[in-house]
Design brief:
Strands 2-3-1-9-8-10 form a 6-stranded antiparallel sheet, with helices on one face. Strands 4-5-6-7-11-12 form a 6-stranded antiparallel sheet. The protein has a 5-stranded parallel sheet with strand order 15-14-13-16-17. The chain folds into 3 domains: 199 residues, Glutamine Phosphoribosylpyrophosphate, subunit 1, domain 1 (4-Layer Sandwich), CATH 3.60.20; 209 residues, Rossmann fold; 55 residues, no CATH class. Strand 4 and strand 5 form a beta hairpin. It has 505 residues and is α+β, with helices and mostly antiparallel strands. Helix 2 runs antiparallel to helix 3, helix 7 crosses helix 17 and helix 10 crosses helix 11. It is globular. The longest helix has 21 residues.
Length: 505
């Protein structure tokens, strides 16, 4: 079987260099894609990637992917590009304020005589990799494509890192802004890449976070925005929702209540936790008389090795083959070419890193602590150095964070836009992805309530209750474990954390 047609599916490449005569193995493939000229830059877009562009008065904005504006009820990416452009021509602040209201999976290229930069959606789910060392501009959704065009090989340190047992046992993603190629870096959420000087600049946050109480009005606003997104998407897409035994996917399911009969609901199976998830998800679906599917890597069918040959290139060898088998199982299922509604990201607002460790984590900017939280070979020079470079690259400084908790932003900008974005890249061969939490306006609302409320997920609980109180009647995965077992595991986890990392108490 030949899966070569899945190489760099939904990809893009932005460069000021000619691909004619390039020694890159995939240069010929890219030249067959859609092509757009933007000043000295050429934008190449895979046939399955939507492109919307608007240019006049010396300003061009290109949107690669798709965007949704739930505040104003628009899913017209062309209209959204025009709105972005008109706001930029008035004030850059108005541009970024409007950007904060958008959801979707996209990359924006903004080009004028004065400025040229790229940025992505709120969680960075449409990846941006770039050559940080060459004088030429080479930016792509795929690290391996940048490396191929530039003739880079995987660095020895990276090769040793990905082949280590610790890397294979964990959720596979790289530390900081690093990739397997030393010259190729990843752009993380809330930052833009200046094309002309190759520097990364933070554009969010831009002001202190407003503090709110949990009110009926706040609950209703968030619930409306969640439902609005699915209403807009259902106009043009066949939708699929991945369900687990947890809270966030249940919120997505609840938000999709008006379209349930037209949506495919499924759960990943295999490991015991996933099997428990599948049982709870199936119970949820039975409650609402909906069909439910379980996708296991064993369902991947024939030709797995041929599929993995393309898939490994797409993911720049940063993911495990087990993830590739799941991607192929999805590709072989009825889910293929649906729009997958994922539900990661709410953890940003639920103090993920500080849970149980509020008084243990230092409040200063501490790359060594970030390396420890990364949890894969945390003491290795490769990982520690990657986080030191990360802090410098993305302007991760107290004065630039406007009072936001450093661990909320670390989870958002590193864990979500590095690990989660790569996880999404896993399945591009099968379907595109969307996330109802992937919106800065919504994330700011969820972050704005007091720490104790965020720790206990009170606002999210109220939103879920508002959307579908029946969804609360099925147990959650965490409720399946006896409370004393959960408490004991938590204490052991915290003790091991400090012993392993030799952090001060």
């Amino acid at each position: 079987m030949d899966y070569g047609h899945l190489l760099f599916k939904r990809a893009y490449l932005v460069t000021d260099s000619s691909l004619e005569g390039s020694a890159g193995h995939y240069a010929g493939l890219v030249q067959g894609w859609k092509r757009h000229k933007v000043g000295p830059l050429t934008v190449y877009a895979h046939p399955d990637l939507d492109v919307n562009s608007h240019g006049s008065e010396g300003l061009t904005i290109v949107l690669l992917g798709f965007a949704v504006d739930p505040l104003n009820g628009s899913c017209d990416s062309g209209e959204i590009v025009e709105n972005l452009r008109s706001r930029w021509l008035k004030t850059t602040e108005g541009f970024f304020e409007y950007l904060d209201t958008l959801n979707g999976r996209f990359v924006l290229l903004v080009h004028s005589a004065r400025r040229a930069f790229v940025l992505h959606d709120a969680m960075g789910t449409k990846t941006v990799f770039y050559d940080a060392e060459s004088e030429n501009t080479v930016i792509s959704s795929h690290a391996a494509l940048v490396a191929d065009i530039q003739g880079y090989e995987m660095s020895p340190d990276a090769r040793e890192f990905v082949s280590s047992p610790e890397y294979g046992r964990q959720n596979s993603y790289f530390p900081g802004v690093a990739t397997p190629y030393s010259a190729v870096k990843m752009l993380t959420a809330n930052a833009l890449l200046d094309i002309r000087d190759r520097k990364v600049h933070r554009y969010f946050p831009r002001a202190p976070l407003e503090t709110r109480r949990i009110t009926d009005g706040l609950v209703e606003e968030i619930a409306r925005l969640f439902s609005s997104q699915i209403d807009l998407l259902s106009r043009d897409h066949r939708l699929a929702v991945s369900l687990s035994g947890g809270f966030d996917s249940r919120t997505t399911m609840a938000a999709s209540r008006d379209h349930r009969e037209d949506i495919l609901y499924f759960t990943y199976g295999g490991l015991q936790k996933y099997e428990d998830d599948a049982l709870l998800a199936a119970e949820l679906c039975r409650k609402f008389d909906l069909e439910h599917m379980v996708i296991r890597k064993e369902d991947c069918g024939e030709g797995l090795e041929e599929f993995l040959a393309a898939w490994r290139v797409n993911t720049a060898f940063m993911r495990s083959d087990a993830d590739g088998a799941i991607a192929k199982a999805i590709y072989e299922s009825r889910l293929r070419d649906a729009l997958h509604l994922k539900s990661n990201g709410s953890e940003i607002t639920r103090v993920w890193y500080r849970w149980g460790m509020k008084h243990m984590l230092p409040n200063d900017i501490a790359p060594d602590t970030y390396a420890a939280l990364y949890n894969i070979r945390p003491r290795s020079p490769f990982v520690v150095d990657a986080f030191r470079r990360y802090v410098e690259t993305v302007e991760f400084r107290k004065e630039a964070l406007f009072g936001y908790d450093v661990y909320d932003l670390l989870y958002w900008e590193h864990r979500v836009s590095a690990w989660h974005a790569l996880q999404i890249l896993d399945t591009d061969a099968a379907y595109d992805n969307f996330n109802i939490f992937n919106n800065r306006h919504i994330l700011k609302l969820l972050l704005s309530v007091p720490f104790g409320d965020r720790l206990r997920g009170r606002l999210q609980y109220r939103v879920l209750e508002s959307l579908s109180p029946e969804a609360l009647e099925v147990p959650f995965y965490k409720d399946l474990k006896p409370r004393y077992v959960t408490a004991a595991k938590t204490l052991a986890k915290h003790a091991k954390y400090y012993v392993d990392r030799a952090l001060p108490l």
